[in-house]
Write a structure and sequence with these properties.
alpha+beta, 6 strands, 2 helices
Length: about 70
């Protein structure tokens, strides 16, 4: 699999990770490791935040969408 961002830029770089949100293949330069809060809850509610954060890999677009940047 190739890095989707690199292919759009005309380069061919092997992917080393996949975005947890959109599934885009990413090279080491475009993969963003982010510690995200984890929520758990029953049906239909309430939800509560779990104490530990979980490391996730995101593409630049999903990172910006989640962080509001």
């Amino acid at each position: 699999m190739k890095c989707y961002v690199c292919v759009k830029e005309g380069r061919s770089t092997d992917a080393v990770a996949v975005c947890i949100v959109c599934g885009m293949g990413l090279c080491k330069d475009h993969a963003i490791r982010e510690e995200l809060d984890l929520w758990e809850g029953g049906y239909p509610f309430p939800a509560k935040k779990v104490k530990a954060k979980i490391p996730r890999i995101l593409c630049p677009e999903c990172y910006q969408a989640l962080k509001g940047k």
